[in-house]
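Re: the 344-residue chain
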Amino acid sequence: MKKLNLFDKLLFFFNSIAATTLLLAYILPYMEPKRFAFLSVLSLTVPFLIIVNLLFVIYWLLKVKKQLLLSLIVLLIGFNHVASLYKISASKQVEDEDNIAVMNYNVRLFNVFKWIPDIDATKEISQFIDDKKPDIISMQEYRPDKTLVLKGYYRFEAVGGKKIKNGQAIFSKFPIINRGSIEFPNTYNNAIFADIVKGKDTIRIYNVHLQSLKVDANTDPLKNEAAENLFRRVGSTFRLQQAQADLFLNHKAKSPYKTIVCGDFNNTAYSYVYKEIKGNELKDAFVEAGNGFGRTFDFKFFPVRIDFILVDDHFEINGFRTFDIKLSDHFPIMSKVKVKQIGG
């Protein structure tokens, strides 16, 4: 520190705070929000903290200063976190006639309140889906709309509300033989499922929409709300998400079928609810086959991935893609998966 000028000393002070905070964030997935709600809010900042620490490493490297070791060591300790933020490898795309294309999309009520001006969201989403031809579609913030044209799909809708009916939907090109809703209490958020049949296989598709954070993607939250109130509100949301994840996991544990979990978790891959839902049984399609940041929520300050496609070990993941189209505040994601052959 003696060889650092005043500016670099001040910078290293902030570097130390960023590195320490990121190190703390690594243990947050193991801390129940109902017990540590205030701290759990930090999980939302992990992408930002990783980027900041990378910038500090670059800065000290260019200045040939040993201070780079602080952030470098912290980043290496959390290598899996860094790897899940940005996938350097090329996106995996294996074409196979047995692939099942699974899409997840929070459609934000098809832009009914014109959040995005000058678009016909329902028409354009219909055209987008027709172009990409997914076999299964999981939608959150879905609103029944006669102008939504999806030909050749069986569907299951679970909607409620008085003024504008909304909820979730699962569309499938394969027959749906069973369907149901888990019913999260005291909220419009929910989890639904549909059992589909493809050939000899019955597959359960879950569509999970955990409690919403109600954060404006284009506005600094601290400009509209005091920090203490923001942390308290988000912490309360995380506690609800934990209870909802528990209900989902209890239901999933009783399923006898091969399983695909889609959804908007309203939380990142660094959160407690993601760790619990994914567990050791499911694989994250983006981690296995995606590339880049994989951001799924249009948050202007840093990349955020809160929408997921997870599959159990009965499936091979042959592809993953995030589509950069702005018809909602979320971006659609699609994975190509294949049921493993016995002995394969």
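The chain has a mean pLDDT of 92.
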